[in-house]
Amino acid sequence: MDLGVPETHVIEFAPRLMPRQIDAIGSNMLQSKLSQLGLKIHLNKNTSTIQGNGKMESLHFTDDTSLECDMLVISAGIRPRDELAHLSGLNTGTRGGILVNEKLQTNDPAIFAVGECALYDGMIYGLVAPGYEMAEVVAANLSGASKSFAGFDMSTKLKLIGVDVASFGDPYITEPDCRTIIFEDTHQGVYKRINLTRDGKYLLGGILIGDAAAYNILLQTVNNKITLPPHPEDLILGARGGCSCEAVSKGTICQAVTGEQVTTVNGMKKCTKAGTGCGGCIPMVKDLIVGTMKANGMYVKNDICEHFPYSRQELYDLIKINQVKHYDSVLNKFGKGDGCEICKPAVASIFSSVWNELIVKQDTIQDSNDRYLANIQKGGTYSVVPRVAGGEITPDNLILIGSVAKKYGLYTKITGGQRIDMFGAHVSDLPDIWEELMQGGMESGHAYGKALRTVKSCVGSTWCRFGLHDSVSFAVELENRYQGIRAPHKIKSGVSGCIRECAEAQSKDFGVIATEKGWNLYVCGNGGSKPQHAKLLASDIDKETCIRYLDRFLMFYIKTADPLTRTATWLNKMEGGMSYLHNVIVNDSLGIGEQLEKEIQVLIDGYMCEWKEVVEDPELRKRFAHFVNAPKEKDPTVEFVEMRGQVHAKQW
User: Fold this and answer.
1) Stated pTM of the model
2) How many C-beta atoms surround the C-beta of residue 137 within 10 A?
3) CA pair distance 78, 127, nearest whole angstrom
4) Long-range contacts: 213-218, Cβ < 8 Å, 24+?
C-alpha cells in the first residue's frame, strides 16, 4: 500500500485474521478496519500453485478459485518438524508437534524436545524466548535439579498499518470458567475484552483492538496477580464522568442539583455517595455542581463548605490578616458549626502555607497522611519516602535505604519521580525507621503532603553529549528551595538538559528545559487523571530570572487556588487563562511580584524536616503507636503480605 500498488490483498489460511492472538469478534473488527484502509481480505484460502510464464501472474487455491497478482510476499509461520519423532514411535499431536510433559520429556523418558517442534499443553511456541526457557528446563533436569515448564506468556502488542492490536494473559477463556466484560464500538473500530476470575478479583487476560493504550497496565495486572478495583470495567472504559468509586454518574449529580437542590459537596456525598470513596473525584464533583447551578440560573458562591461562607482565597487572607493559628479560633471568628472533613484539612493546609509551622503540632484537623507524616496503604501499613533531590543519590544512601528496608521488611519501589519508596511500615516503627535514615543524612521527601514532591532531572551536560546545561544541579537547587512548601495540592516538577525532554518537564506543574540561550519555563502541566501539557511562561531566561518567576508563580497559586486543585485545573478555570497568568508573573501587571517573592521566601527560610522534629521530640513520638496503652505492640489486624519476593522481617 505504501508503494501505491492499486490493489493489495491479504490471503489467510485460517477462517479469521490473527487466530492465535484474538477472538472472532476482535478479528471481525480488525478485518473491518483493514478493509476501510483499502486492503482486500481473503479467508479460508489454501494456496495450491503459483502460476505464470516467466513471471508471477496468479495464485490458485484448493477451492478452485484464483487471484491475479504480480508480486507476492510470504509470511510462512511455524510448522513443527516431527517426522523423525513420528518414525521413532514418539507421540505426536494430531496437527503436528512432539508431545512433551512439564519437564519437556516425550513418552520416552530418555528423549526431550524443545523449541518449535515441541507440543506442550496443546501449544507450539514459535518464538525464541520460550525456546530458551525450555532449554533451561531440560538442562536443569539433566543436571539433577528439578524445574518445570509451565507455558510461556504469549502476550503481544502490534500496530498493523495504524491499527492497534494486543492480546495478553489468557484471551480465549470463556464463561462459565470466567467472567467477561466486553466493550465494542463499531463506529470508532474499537473492541476491548477482559476476562476475570469468577469472583471478579483477578484479571486472567484480554484483547484490545483499535485502542491498546491500556496494554501495559493490563499485562502487569495479569502477570503480578494484582487485585482488581471494585469496578473492573474502568480498566477498559476509564472513569466515566462523576465518581467511579461509587459508580455515580454525571447525570445523577446534575439531577441532585436541579431536582433536590443539593448545592454543596458535603450534601452531594450524603445524597449520592459521590466523593465518599478515594476522594479523587471531589474537584470534578464540585465543578459539576457549580456548572449545573450556573446553567439553571442559580446563585453560585465558591464557599469551602457549609461551615465557612468564604472561598479558600478569602479564608487564606482572613487567617493571615487576623494572625489566626488555631482551627477553633478560625471556626469561632469566621465559621459556624463543628466543621467537617472538607474544611478541616483545607484550614490545616492554609495554616501551613501561611505560617509554615510543624503540621503535627497543629490541632488534629489534618487528614491521616499528614497526621502520621506518611501515606497509609492498603492493609493498614504506611510508606516511607526519603527525599532524593533531582534523583541524585550517593552510594552510601542507596546502601542505607537497602539496609533499612531489609531490617524492617519493607517493599521497595523506584518511582517515576526518581526516588525510592518503601512500603509496609507499621505506624509504631515509623520514628525508628526515620531516625536511622536521618543518621545517614537523609530527610523527609514529603510524599504524604500537599506539597512539592520531586524535581525530576535528566543527566544534562554533566554526562549527556546532547546536554546544553547542568540540569541535575538546577533540579537539586529547585527541589531544595521549595521542599516542604504546602499548597492546595501536590506539586511535581522536572528539569531537562535539552529539548529531547528526558525529564518530561512539560508534563509537570512546573518544568524547565535548557536552550542554547538559557532556560524555557513551562507551568501548569499535569500528568494525573486528565493529562495536560504545561504551557510556556518565559523563554531563553537565565537561572536567576527563572527562579524569580517560579517564586511568584508558586506563591500566586498557593494564595488563589481552590482546595485540592492541581495547577492545570487552576489555570483552566482562571479568567484570561495563560495570557493573564503571564501578565501577573512576568509583566507584574498587578504590582504584587515583589510581595509574592517575599512571601515565599518566608516559607523557604522557615523550612524544617518534619520527621526530624518528630524523631527528636519524645512527646511527638508517642503519637506514633497503634495502641496508647501498649505503644510498642503491633496491630494484629495488619498482616504482612509478601510483595514480589520481599522477605518479612522476623523481629515482628
Assistant:
1) 0.58
2) 22
3) 9
4) 213/164, 215/157, 215/166, 215/168, 218/168, 218/194
Return d(Cα 178, Cα 473) in angstroms, integer. 53
Quote helix, strand, coil % in the chain, to nearest 5.
35, 20, 45
Q: How open is the CA angle 24-26-32, to the nearest 5 degrees?
A: 100
Residue 167 burial by Cβ neighbours in a 10 Å radius (0-12, 13-18, 19+):
buried
3-state secondary structure of 604: helix
Cell digits for 383? 510508606
629 has a pLDDT exceeding 70: no
Cα–Cα dist 89/199, whole Å = 45
Longest dimension (CA), the chain: 99
8 Å CB contact between 249 and 66: no
What's the one-letter identity of residue 544?
E
Which residue is associated with the grid cell 537539586? 476
Q: Are 521 and 537 in contact, with CB atoms under 8 Å apart?
A: yes
Cell numbers for 618, please give them: 519524645
pLDDT tens profile 125-148:
887 878 989 999 999 999 998 899
Angle 572-575-576 from CA coordinates, rounded to 5°: 95
Average pLDDT of the segment spanning 89-107:
94
From CA 215, how far away is CA 465, in angstroms rounded?
34
CA 435 to CA 427: how far, in whole Å? 14
3-state secondary structure 426-452: CHHHHHHHHHHHHHCCCCECCCCCCEE
Burial of 473 (0-12, 13-18, 19+ CB in 10 A): middle
Q: Would you give the distance in Å from CA 156 to the centre of its chain?
A: 21
Is the per-residue pLDDT at 87 higher than 60? yes
Task: Sheet containing 411-414: give its strands across.
Answer: 382-384, 420-425, 411-414
- Distance CA(263)–CA(615), nearest Å, equals 44
- Cα–Cα nearest to 206, from 188, 232, 230: 232
The amino acid present at 529, given as its one-letter code, is S
Query: Using one digit for the tens of pLDDT, what is the confidence trace for 281-338?
Result: 777 787 788 888 877 777 777 888 889 999 899 999 999 999 999 888 999 999 998 8
How far apart are the C-alpha atoms of 419 and 446, rounded to whole Å?
12
3-class SS at 350?
Answer: helix
User: Alpha-carbon torsion 13, 18, 24, 28, what sign?
Assistant: negative
Q: What's phi and psi for 579, nearest 5 deg?
A: -60, -45
